[in-house]
Amino acid sequence: ERSDDEWRAILSPEQFHIIRQKGTERPGTGEYNKFDREGVYNCAACETPLYYSKTKFDSGCGWPAFFEAIPGAVKRQEDNSLGRKRIEITCAACGGHLGHVFKGEGYNYTPEDERHCVNSKEISGAGTNFKNRINI
């Protein structure tokens, strides 16, 4: 497990705030919100594969949205911050904050009725030029 100083040396200040301090980027500002290349989205902190591009969809929420993670890649825990009950999602390998998962929103065009709302700063984009590309 890395210390905060080690993470600060690896991550940009904005990434450190989002990934290690559970921050949130402003809606519509993330580079992967409208990104649609095929491949795998990895954790920006530790490069663990998190999501297949085929599970990404346009939810209109302003953040990248996925209907499911790669099995075992994402952990869930209750988050009662900001005075509301939510489910936080983190990278199972390094504990980096991804965002939150929401259920029962009625997305009829996804096979799962849940939305993983993910910060762009916590993922690296899909495509053949990324280190942990997985053939799907």
UniProtKB/TrEMBL annotation:
Spell out the InterPro entries in the cross-references.
Answer: Met_Sox_Rdtase_MsrB (IPR028427), Met_Sox_Rdtase_MsrB_dom (IPR002579), Mss4-like_sf (IPR011057)
The organism's place on the tree of life at top rank: Eukaryota
Q: Where is the MsrB domain?
A: 4-128
Cofactor(s) demanded: Zn(2+)
Q: Does the keyword Protein transport apply?
A: no
Gene3D superfamilies recorded: Peptide methionine sulfoxide reductase
One molecular function GO term is:
metal ion binding
Q: What is its EC number?
A: 1.8.4.12
List keywords of the entry alphabetically.
Metal-binding, Oxidoreductase, Zinc
Q: How is the cofactor bound?
A: Binds 1 zinc ion per subunit.
What is the enzyme's main class? oxidoreductase
List the catalytic activities from the record: L-methionyl-[protein] + [thioredoxin]-disulfide + H2O = L-methionyl-(R)-S-oxide-[protein] + [thioredoxin]-dithiol
What is one GO biological process annotated to this record?
response to oxidative stress
Family statement drawn from the similarity comment of this UniProt entry = Belongs to the MsrB Met sulfoxide reductase family.
Q: What is this protein called?
A: Peptide-methionine (R)-S-oxide reductase
